[in-house]
């Protein structure tokens, strides 16, 4: 299995989101909400551009003593947030996975509505 982005729309908030899934189908990066599908796609492009560069990752500590990271764009805007990890090693593995997978990941568009569905 290959890593992929999934683009989807929330029915609760009526916004578009994306998530990056690793080869094991685990979510390794998730976006904030976007008002339009086009903006969500632009967010994916931004992840692909910024993910190889370590200086765009912020290594953070959660209040529950777990660890996570964010990926930011050149303007310091957060474009993706990781899951929580129980160790700094886990967080570093997550960053390595995004660096390794994001650039070549395809996009699965879950917003497409099929006729007759």
Textual characterization of the structure:
It is a single chain. The chain is an alpha+beta fold and 117 residues long. The chain has a single domain (4-109), classed as PH-domain like, CATH 2.30.29.80. Helix content is 24%, strand content 30%. It has helices spanning 37-50, 88-101; strands spanning 4-9, 16-21, 27-30, 57-61, 67-72, 78-81, 106-109. It has a 4-stranded mixed beta sheet with strand order 3-2-1-7, with helices on one face. A 3-stranded antiparallel beta sheet has the order 4-5-6, covered by helices on one side. The mean pLDDT is 93.
CATH level 1 name = Mainly Beta
Helical percentage: 10-25%
Report the CATH architecture: Roll
Helix segment tally: 2
Which key phrases capture this entry?
alpha+beta, PH-domain like, 24% helix
List the helices and strands and how they pair.
Elements lengths: L3 E6 L6 E6 L5 E4 L6 H14 L6 E5 L5 E6 L5 E4 L6 H14 L4 E4 L8
Parallel strand pairs: 1-7
Antiparallel strand pairs: 1-2, 2-3, 4-5, 5-6
Short overview:
This protein is α+β, with helices and mostly antiparallel strands. It has one domain (4-109): PH-domain like (Roll).
